[in-house]
């Protein structure tokens, strides 16, 4: 399913429920999603490091790729720390689920936020989803926004993201 298909499928529910949410509730979502997104980029980068370490460990132990190691892990139990490996794989699956939810919510922000959806998406992507951290000033320059406009849109984007995150 493409991002656009998911957004279209969610249109009816999102638009009907959006009108029911009060300012108070949107502020509650804003606080929670801001806390999550402030740690999101670090979580993704750390997750990539763990994946690389697990891949390297599997390469060292049996000189094959990770899929082969997982397929035959019972045979190589005496040479691998299976408890650690299973725990890390479980954590990776949970982080993947979180990433999927954030991506779905960002898709909804892009397509269904009135007036500024694409701009909100660009602000969120610039602040939280890049492979390297950028300062707010770098993002402002890239997007061609004034300081006041950038922070106003960032707050509004996080509020909408929090709302849509709860729906995805």
From TrEMBL:
Highest taxon listed in the record's lineage: Bacteria
Record has Coiled coil as a keyword: yes
Coiled coil: 33-71
Keywords: Coiled coil
Protein name: Phage transcriptional regulator, ArpU family
Keyword Coiled coil: yes
